[in-house]
Amino acid sequence: MNLEQINERVHACDCGNPHHIITIERIVASEHVWHELATFVYEKSWSRLLVIADSNTEHVGFLPLREALTGIGIDVSLVSLQADDQGDVLAEERAIVQVLLHQESTVDALIALGAGTIHDVTRFCAAKTKVPFISVPTAPSVDGFTSKGAPLIVRGKKITYQLVSPMAVFVPSQVIRKAPDALIAAGVGDMLGKYTSLLDWQFGAYDGGEPFCPVAASLTEQALQSCVDALPDIYKRDADGLDQLMESLLLSGVAMLIFGHSHPASGGEHHLSHYWEMDFIANHRPAVLHGTKVAIATMELIDSYKTTILNGPEMPDTLQAWAEQMPRRQELESIFRTLRAPLRPEEIGISSLLLASSKREAYRLRERHTLLKHMSLNRTETEVGERFL
Ligand SMILES: [Zn+2]
Ligand SMILES: [Zn+2]
After folding, report:
1. Are residues 167 and 27 in the same domain?
2. Measured in angstroms, how far is the CA atom of residue 214 from the centroid of ligand 2?
3. What predicted TM-score, i.e. pTM, was given to this entire model?
């Protein structure tokens, strides 16, 4: 990913919205990433680092990371986030307090060693204590690594805070390529959710006057298309395919970063996913991977989204063209079946009642003019019952 080139495109964009220049200094994906990370830390003259992980990610990456850093005289300590009674590590108050209790004032920087949750917690703590953080993704499962957004659960409600992006990203390719199938399928889910999120964003701009940036949209589209092109390699777990999946997820995060909000990468499908997540937390049920929920939510919405735009009155050509090339539910099902991922809400424990209420209510979670909101508000009870729910 050429960050300089992206910054130039952002600089030249005349969409009228405030843009955020990318301040990430380095994105490296390599089998020798621990050495490169140590060189970066040395260049910064840092001497004390705190690594945030959980028991799984500690296992896959902490030893080589510590070895590389202590080898150049850096003091490295670890906080391993504790799982709750359901065995989940959540990005919520307890995890944040656990990190802050370990974070002494002499710590120069934090390192997020893990996937989405670890990054959300680290990003929050780094922003609040005003120290930089380094991202070390351990699975290609989610697209938030490079963004500023930290979706946190606060008193049972999922709220996304715009905070800080990492100072650098170091992807240990050998770890990414060994990620469990479920995390890889979740990453593909978070990426393919861009079909509906990009449609929602264009619809929100056209019908609701929401801010829209063509550069951020085209970067997200590029990330989505590269992921789709890599699917045959991802199915085979080829190194090239998994490296590309990671690259797509990082690029999608960069698109959110330059726009400053999650519009490019999060539409109605994410709102359904957030609604289900909050219901699971309220009922003390084990968490389901973010990308797994997004994949299922995208499959739930995509045919209705397509029909609404293609049959809608006077929809602009760009919206029609995007809706036209979107896959149908059946095609998405075939992709996720090949990835051995769940296809239907009931397979991850979402009842027909929860599904119905989410389709009616989830749009209220965010101030966004999405097709999900449009469909929820515009259909009569009968139509909703027959065609949407
Ligand atoms: Zn997502
Ligand atoms: Zn722009």
Report:
1. yes
2. 6
3. 0.94
